[in-house]
């Protein structure tokens, strides 16, 4: 394929900010030594050996598990929401989309901090609970708080792509299905759902990837005791200073995401041309 | 027994009346066309029969049973949609089999029925093709096959040929008509193309502004338009004011003419319709009317000429060409003079 000249700046951009950093991470992952001193670097597989021990695998397992559950919850909450929005009359529809998007204009950290003041030991919810005479609850620094944070932050990323696909489905297709004898449930299962698959795949991708690699949500709502793979990577770079181990964990996470996404897109048997999927 | 009967159907959208007291019955095996300009209510009428719209007033009867409140999926009626509405996520086979699978027919039966349909629409071997790999004409046939495979009692067609080019449209008109005769079911066809309606229909229902203007066979509609709208809409016509002096005698353009109409009041103001091809060009001496050729346009089979007489501009279709500026005589046979009751101008 012949490349146009206008493409060169973008190729340069991609090389500098995507390809080179990727190779650097690969390089760090397969070496050991003092991270601040290139002279000490040596080729080694130790980082990977170190990762494949129960301690770290457990963290990976927990991360994947939480990301998986939050993706499922987002899908269960998001699909009906997207469906309802897409069925609303245009004016209401725009309003609802706006309501969904407005929180995203606020800083991600701020939004997550807000939950601290709600869920904390002396937070608003516990304040109300103790006022009416009950003992305060442990609402924060556990799995459920992290899940809540993930679902809250990532739900729009599930709703929007599904909504976009749903409003593009032509009304005449639904009428055609009804005309051919399909009742409401059959119309949904045989026409609407298959046609919205590309949106679902995109939604899953856009929720699962940030969820599996997040470290902010788990740090704030999970407390220090609650580690996910994202926190481990962050710790290696910020506190421990072992960039090599941090890089290898990033690579493993990347490969993991890649495999997951490949599997997800396999479910989308219909090779719908450019329906909004990332694959 | 009427297959479908519409009784006093009215439809309003947000206070705007789109259908006004429609009464219509459709017989078994009839090819009936709803014809009219866009916005006349023909598609709404079709959608009410299909169950996609509810009438504001009135009832829809199907074989004498009230189906006004029955949802589309429970009606023994199938539709060919304007833009075909084929399912893009299914291949040709699954599109046609859609209705049969919903009815949970055994696989072998579905198989043979789909094959038979593909043969009927002349697309054998297309089972595994995807919808977007088909041309407009092929998609059209699949849409028809998908509807007909369910063996409906009535097939609704909403401007199904609108997206096809002229040549293909002409072929499909004949093919559709043949198909209707072969499968022997009622077709209700919506179009704004008067030629299409004349070619295919047993009965034409001309609609305008939410009302039925005339119901009749193509020949009736063409030769005996009930009012000026029908006359204008179906082909070209000359419409001129006239006075009915007595039965079989009409005056227009300052001349008395013999005609074949009767039953009007003496001296009643009426409108006269004369088709452009019914006016004969003769010598000035033999003409009932005289006029000067104002313009000539070549139309292929005939010339279209505008003739200016003392109080009217006549349109003539003729294979004989007269130069612009020549004076000619014109005659009309009594049976080609159509008298219409005068409706107040809008």
Automatic annotation (TrEMBL), chain B:
<dbReference type="InterPro" id="IPR050093">
    <property type="entry name" value="ABC_SmlMolc_Importer"/>
</dbReference>
<dbReference type="InterPro" id="IPR003439">
    <property type="entry name" value="ABC_transporter-like_ATP-bd"/>
</dbReference>
<comment type="subunit">
    <text>The complex is composed of two ATP-binding proteins (PotA), two transmembrane proteins (PotB and PotC) and a solute-binding protein (PotD).</text>
</comment>
<dbReference type="InterPro" id="IPR017879">
    <property type="entry name" value="PotA_ATP-bd"/>
</dbReference>
<dbReference type="Pfam" id="PF00005">
    <property type="entry name" value="ABC_tran"/>
</dbReference>
<dbReference type="InterPro" id="IPR017871">
    <property type="entry name" value="ABC_transporter-like_CS"/>
</dbReference>
<dbReference type="GO" id="GO:0043190">
    <property type="term" value="C:ATP-binding cassette (ABC) transporter complex"/>
</dbReference>
<feature type="domain" description="ABC transporter">
    <location>
        <begin position="4"/>
        <end position="234"/>
    </location>
</feature>
<dbReference type="GO" id="GO:0005524">
    <property type="term" value="F:ATP binding"/>
</dbReference>
<dbReference type="Pfam" id="PF08402">
    <property type="entry name" value="TOBE_2"/>
</dbReference>
<dbReference type="InterPro" id="IPR008995">
    <property type="entry name" value="Mo/tungstate-bd_C_term_dom"/>
</dbReference>
<keyword id="KW-1003">Cell membrane</keyword>
<comment type="function">
    <text>Part of the ABC transporter complex PotABCD involved in spermidine/putrescine import. Responsible for energy coupling to the transport system.</text>
</comment>
<dbReference type="InterPro" id="IPR027417">
    <property type="entry name" value="P-loop_NTPase"/>
</dbReference>
<keyword id="KW-1278">Translocase</keyword>
<dbReference type="InterPro" id="IPR013611">
    <property type="entry name" value="Transp-assoc_OB_typ2"/>
</dbReference>
<protein>
    <recommendedName>
        <fullName>Spermidine/putrescine import ATP-binding protein PotA</fullName>
        <ecNumber>7.6.2.11</ecNumber>
    </recommendedName>
</protein>
<dbReference type="GO" id="GO:0015594">
    <property type="term" value="F:ABC-type putrescine transporter activity"/>
</dbReference>
<keyword id="KW-0067">ATP-binding</keyword>
<keyword id="KW-0547">Nucleotide-binding</keyword>
<dbReference type="GO" id="GO:0016887">
    <property type="term" value="F:ATP hydrolysis activity"/>
</dbReference>
<dbReference type="InterPro" id="IPR005893">
    <property type="entry name" value="PotA-like"/>
</dbReference>
<keyword id="KW-0472">Membrane</keyword>
<comment type="similarity">
    <text>Belongs to the ABC transporter superfamily. Spermidine/putrescine importer (TC 3.A.1.11.1) family.</text>
</comment>
<keyword id="KW-0813">Transport</keyword>
<dbReference type="InterPro" id="IPR003593">
    <property type="entry name" value="AAA+_ATPase"/>
</dbReference>
């Amino acid at each position: 394929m012949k490349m146009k000249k206008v493409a060169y700046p973008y190729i340069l951009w991609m090389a500098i900010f995507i390809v080179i950093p990727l190779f650097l991470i690969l390089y760090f992952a397969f070496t050991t030594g003092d991270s601040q001193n290139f002279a000490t670097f040596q080729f080694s597989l130790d980082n990977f050996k170190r990762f494949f021990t129960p301690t770290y695998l457990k963290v990976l397992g927990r991360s994947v598990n939480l990301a998986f559950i939050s993706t499922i919850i987002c899908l269960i909450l998001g699909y009906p929401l997207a469906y309802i929005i897409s069925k609303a009359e245009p004016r209401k529809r725009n309003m609802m989309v706006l309501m969904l998007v407005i929180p995203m204009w606020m800083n991600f950290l701020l939004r997550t901090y807000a939950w601290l003041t709600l869920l904390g030991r002396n937070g608003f919810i516990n304040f109300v609970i103790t006022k009416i005479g009950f003992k305060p609850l442990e609402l924060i620094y556990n799995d459920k708080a992290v899940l809540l944070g993930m679902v809250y932050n990532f739900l729009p990323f599930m709703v929007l792509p599904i909504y976009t696909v749903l409003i593009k489905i032509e009304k005449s297709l639904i009428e055609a299905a009804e005309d051919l004898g399909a009742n409401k449930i059959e119309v949904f299962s045989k026409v609407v759902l298959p046609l919205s698959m590309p949106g679902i795949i995109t939604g899953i991708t856009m929720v699962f990837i940030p969820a599996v690699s997040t470290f902010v949500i788990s740090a704030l709502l999970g407390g220090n005791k609650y580690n996910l793979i994202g926190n481990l990577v962050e710790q290696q770079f910020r506190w421990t200073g072992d960039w090599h181990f941090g890089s290898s964990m990033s690579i493993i996470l990347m490969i993991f995401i890649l495999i997951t996404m490949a599997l997800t897109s396999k479910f989308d048997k219909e090779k719908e041309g450019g329906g909004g999927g990332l694959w | 027994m009427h297959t479908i009967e519409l009784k006093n159907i009215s439809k309003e959208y947000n206070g705007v009346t789109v259908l006004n007291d429609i009464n219509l019955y459709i017989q078994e095996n009839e090819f009936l066309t709803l014809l009219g300009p866009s916005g006349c209510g023909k598609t709404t009428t079709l959608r009410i029969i299909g169950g996609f719209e509810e009438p504001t007033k009135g009832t829809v009867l199907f074989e004498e049973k009230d189906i006004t409140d029955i949802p589309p999926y429970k009606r023994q009626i199938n539709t060919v949609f304007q833009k075909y509405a084929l399912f893009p996520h299914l291949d040709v086979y699954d599109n046609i089999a859609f209705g049969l699978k919903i009815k949970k027919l055994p696989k072998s039966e579905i198989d043979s029925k789909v094959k038979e349909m593909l043969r009927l629409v002349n697309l054998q071997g297309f089972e595994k093709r995807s919808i977007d790999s088909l041309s407009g004409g092929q998609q059209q046939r699949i849409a028809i096959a998908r509807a007909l495979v369910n063996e409906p009692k009535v097939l609704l067609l909403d401007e199904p040929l609108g997206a096809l080019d002229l040549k293909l449209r002409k072929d499909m008109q004949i093919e559709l008509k043949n198909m209707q005769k072969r499968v022997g079911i009622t077709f209700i066809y919506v179009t704004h193309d008067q030629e299409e309606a004349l070619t295919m229909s047993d009965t034409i229902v001309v609609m305008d502004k939410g009302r039925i203007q005339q119901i009749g066979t193509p020949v009736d509609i063409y030769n005996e338009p009930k009012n000026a709208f029908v006359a204008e809409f179906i082909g070209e016509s000359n419409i001129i004011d006239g006075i009915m002096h007595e039965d079989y005698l009409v005056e227009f353009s300052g001349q008395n003419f013999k005609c074949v109409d009767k039953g009007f009041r003496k001296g009643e103001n009426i409108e006269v319709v004369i088709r452009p091809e019914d006016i004969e060009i003769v010598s000035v001496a033999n003409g009932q009317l005289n006029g000067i050729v104002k313009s000539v346009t070549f139309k292929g089979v005939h010339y279209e000429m505008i003739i200016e007489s003392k109080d009217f501009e006549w349109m003539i279709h003729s294979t004989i060409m007269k130069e612009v500026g020549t004076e000619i005589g014109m005659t009309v046979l009594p049976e080609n003079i159509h008298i219409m009751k005068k409706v107040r101008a809008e």
